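Weekly modeling sync, notes
Attendees: S.R. (lead), two postdocs, one rotation student

Agenda item 3: backlog of single-chain predictions. S.R. asked that every request posted to the team notebook include the full sequence so nobody has to chase files. The rotation student volunteered to paste the first one in as an example of the format we agreed on. Action items at the bottom.

Example entry:
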Amino acid sequence: MAGTGVTWLGTPTFPKAARAALGDTQLRRNLRKATHTIRDKRAAAVAELADWERLRAAGAAIKDSALANLDVHLERLEAAVTARGGVVHWARDADEANAIVLRLVRAAGADEVVKVKSMATAEIGLNEALLAGGVRPVETDLAELIVQLGRDRPSHILVPAIHRNRAEIREIFRREMPSASPGLTDDPRELADAARHHLRLKFLSARVAVSGANFAVADTGSVVVVESEGNGRMCLTLPETLITVMGIEKVVPSWRDLEVLLQLLPRSSTAERMNPYTSVWTGVTPGDGPRHFHLVLLDNGRTDALADEVGRQALRCIRCSACLNSCPVYERTGGQAYGSVYPGPIGAILTPQLLGDLSDPQQASLPYASSLCGACFEVCPVRIDIPRVLVHLRSKVVAAKSGASPEAAAMAALGWIMRDPRRFEAAQRAGSLARLLARQGRISRLPWPGSRWTSARDVPAPPRESFRAWWRRTRG
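Predicted structure, as returned to the notebook:
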């Protein structure tokens, strides 16, 4: 479970990890069933709104406007939170954010914290940092709890344990939960009751809670968390100290902007018209909720991503996971193959930008973890053109390669061939010989270096006759 920044230590490149995942038939069955179920429900929820496309356009415009004036909105947010009794901390990277949280937990005299599901805290490896500092983190989201107890890695933004079925979850609970009944079955209600019993004492005894944030409103300093189970509400109201770690891109200027985003998020994520629990808090309120509130504003590569005119649209992301559920690559490989806290299409464009080192083989492999079919863009509630960013990042991967890259050598050779009509026609004749390898109009295996392509996909057989040959034969 060790993590560094956004990716996990020792993670192979995506092609290697994907090949291993493709061999796990149980994983593929679990993923197919779950993604198709969520996808179908989302489509039905979206179809209820005649103005869905207008909402998408509004959501994209709101996020772009907020990002264009991010410095102004963040300063307004800090002033509003401070005026209402909260404390704001600025963290440049994961190490700084973890140090801030650990210091605050120790100052509160706690050796255990309850956590609301949070991508930002997973991104910075907060759980590992807390454990190293002598503090036990307790995940309270059911899926996150399953991952934590199973000493596993999450594989989905919304449903981290999507790769597990009920029988596997039952075995994890039997093995790791002292309070679980030996006769526990895989009935969903029994599993939920076991988790509820396990967490109840944690909620009542916790002195410190750690959360992420879906949004923050600059006008009032309000922070918003949406969830479906109620565990977040318990964490946000019972402990004496609440620490929220929030990526700086989550700020929106006003409540009017929030109105649009809160229509887009639930339908795109859980296929609900409204989340069962939408928690909003503003600083500290005497006699109600936590007595101390700390907001940690996290950069961790976001400012660098903001400087990229094409790639910055990834910062619009509201973490709905619709792109994962629609992606044919994710459906077959699962999230762990991406080696990142952020899996799927959004992870393929967000992770390399946050880490910013496309000379690293694992990061460089992520922009290629896509067929560029465009399904992710069609379902994104804030219209992130993920295929365009993938192609953009692929060009940066090639540019980051030291020396003569295979791509550069191939393009140079192609340029030499195409500069001379005789060479070009000879190459066409040679290429037509590949028909000898075709079966039913497809070529499944080519010699090296063509084998690099056919190891993962077929090649259409070339036509029997080139255009030049056809023109010469028919036009004389």
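Discussion: group reviewed the output briefly. The radius of gyration is 25 Å.
Action items: rotation student to repeat for the remaining queue; S.R. to check formatting next week.
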